[in-house]
Amino acid sequence: MHCLWCDKEMVTEVHWGSLLLPDRVTYLCRECEAALEKLDGYLCNKCGRQVGRGGETCRDCRRWEQLSQWQGVLTQNRSVYVYNERMRVMLAKWKYRGDYKLREVFGIGLQDTFRKAFSKHLRKQAVLVPIPLSEERLYERGFNQSEAIIDVLGKPAEQLLTRTHGEKQSKKTRRQRIHTENPFTLIKPTDKPVILIDDIYTTGTTLRHAARTLKSHGCPEVYSLTLARS
Amino acid sequence: MFRAVEAIESYWWGWRCRRCGNKLRRKFADIPCARCNQTHVYCRNCVEMGRVLECQPLYVWTGPHPTWPVRGKACGWDGELTAAQQQASNRIREVMEAGVGELLTWAVCGAGKTEMLFAGIGRSLEAGKRVCLATPRADVVRELLPRFRHAFPDTSISGLYGGSEKKAADGQLVLATTHQLLRFARAFDVMVIDEIDAFPYHEDPSLPFAASRAAKSASARIYLTATPRKKQRRRLEHGQLDSVFVPIRFHGRPLPVPRLILSSHMKKSLQNNMPPVAFFNWLKRRHHPERQLLLFVPYVELAGNMEKAIGPLLRDKLGDTVIASVHAADEEREAKVQQFRNQELQVLITTTILERGVTFPSVDVVVLDAGHAVFDEAALVQIAGRAGRSPDDPEGEVLFFHAGKTKAMVAAVRSINAMNNRAVKI
Ligand SMILES: [Zn+2]
Ligand SMILES: [Zn+2]
Ligand SMILES: [Zn+2]
Ligand SMILES: [Zn+2]
């Protein structure tokens, strides 16, 4: 096996313990694995970023919840990795350069977080909805990263939304983003809880717009899972 | 007429990437394509150059060579060249007219090398030849396109860079990033390679391979550089490579010499995403506060974080300062560079992606943590070369803030001084 990131050959250590355990496939060499930081310890009970104490809600989330139109729109977000330099480079190669194969690297982490973050009941009930790309962007990239994430989770994806406006918003300030027009339109309503899937949680605006669109058409509760939390 | 060939060839033993030559099975993977709802094989080995799929062919010229008619005057540019530019322009034209041979043009940043190419390219186009200018950076292709369209109004011109895959690659004159050369084979009579010393050209062995494959076997090859690498200097010294030297800027003023400013609290300041105190001291007293400011930082995260940290402060000190930051994977990079060029932004914080090629008329240039390993001699010379580009403001300050001089910094200053001395002798 060669590391999917740096292509170094990985020597699998065989010892008595590993003979008893089912094979856990590794995609990254030890160094590359270590360069990724899992989000653990105390997490904001809303957005899943690291916070100082358990049970805390971070300042950004408190601000969201103070706005009446956004209060409770997104029940909870959980993310797998810290958006550090390595994560940024990996996501760029995956998304923009289009190295689709890299999704496999995130598989185990995604599955772990998915299982840990959401109750068994929710996992069974909920439908997984990818954040859609605009048609133009999808053509450019050839694939939607959110769907690829659902694919490595081994779950079916439900296309309930389409994107009507462009994705670019990094030029806008937080305030502008919060008040921007909703870029999503509903294709199909659902009465089941939804777990939205996206690659990065940055301000949470995109996810909240999607959540509000679903909820205003009868969806009881919306959670989200992202690969990285910036 | 070009024949589109499959980028990935399939054999009984596996695949071969026609672009980079990869045959290793583990370096191929599947991708479901949203364009045609099929699963394609793609090559992971050269995916950094932009993924090619079965539905995005490579262009190969197989039949008789394309013919563009022999015609009258192609070049509509009627500006004047300086004596040094004229001399280089003549040499370039001679090689292009001869149709075979190599020439290295060593021209300082701001020498006006684009204009030096016009005469030769014009003659080549008139003769029905196909010309390619390859440069390492997409920003440069975007900057050059309108200038070439203006200079060669009746010529079909293709501009190719990452993100422009949909555009046709069939122009008589092709401006492309070096990565895009991988799409061509034996296609060009004249090949101009800009910034021959630049990343990624000198780092990635498959790119020189691609460049030589893109040219016809009998072709004129012109290399441009402001900062030749050791390898090229050695070839020059040994007389293995013809060269022409342009040590003076087109406006005749010397290159701004960087000032090295020691600031002992560099690490600490940068940890707080702030420039060091010495920077602010300079900022308060700088001679031309009306100039835009190009601020180089060593790594990506710092660019964004510093924008957030100093944005409010700068707005406070410089009034209505508008500030932005930009890095290689920034989706808005093109727009931000354009805004800066339009002077809608006062300060642009950037990683080394803007070290080359891009021209802004009136800037002061600052490097923070100039001792960082990403700033090698060539990078520092190039960065310094961003200042004083316009004849209306030919000076521009260049400051390297550092926590201890490095060889690269000293060498950069020395080589800039050496250029200026040679320029005086002309
Ligand atoms: Zn590795
Ligand atoms: Zn939070
Ligand atoms: Zn390849
Ligand atoms: Zn396709």
How would you characterize this protein structure?
The complex is a heterodimer of chains A (about 230) and B (about 425). Chain A is α/β, with parallel strands linked by helices and about 230 residues long. Chain A has two domains: about 1-35, no CATH class; about 35-230, 3-Layer(aba) Sandwich (Rossmann fold), CATH 3.40.50. Chain A is about 35% helix and about 15% strand. Chain A is built from ten helices and six strands. Chain A has helices spanning about 15-20, 30-35, 60-65, 85-95, 105-115, 120-125, 135-140, 145-155, 175-180, 205-215; strands at about 75-80, 125-130, 160-165, 185, 195-200, 220-230. In chain A, the strands form two sheets. In chain A, strands 1-6-5-2 form a four-stranded parallel β-sheet. In chain A, strands 3-4 form a two-stranded antiparallel sheet. The radius of gyration of chain A is 18 Å and the shape is globular. Chain A starts with 15 loop residues before the first helix and ends with a strand. The relative contact order of chain A is 0.16. By secondary structure, chain B is an alpha/beta fold. Chain B has helices at about 85-100, 115-125, 140-150, 205-215, 230-235, 265-270, 275-285, 300-320, 335-340, 375-385, 405-425; strands spanning about 5, 10, 15, 30-35, 40-45, 60, 100-105, 130-135, 155-160, 175, 190-195, 215-225, 245, 260, 290-295, 325, 345-350, 365-370, 400. Chain B has a seven-stranded parallel β-sheet. A six-stranded parallel β-sheet of chain B has the order 14-19-18-15-17-16. In chain B, strands 1-6 form a two-stranded antiparallel ribbon. In chain B, α1 (about 85-100) packs parallel to α2 and α10 crosses α11 (about 405-425). The longest helix of chain B has 19 residues, at about 300-320. Chain B starts with a strand and ends with a helix. In chain B, about 45% of the residues are buried. One zinc ion binds near residues 44, 47, 57, 58 and 60 of chain A. Chain A: InterPro entries: ComF/GntX_DNA_util-trans, PRTase-like, PRTase_dom. Chain A: Pfam families: Pribosyltran. Chain A: Belongs to the ComF/GntX family. Chain A: This is Competence protein ComFC.
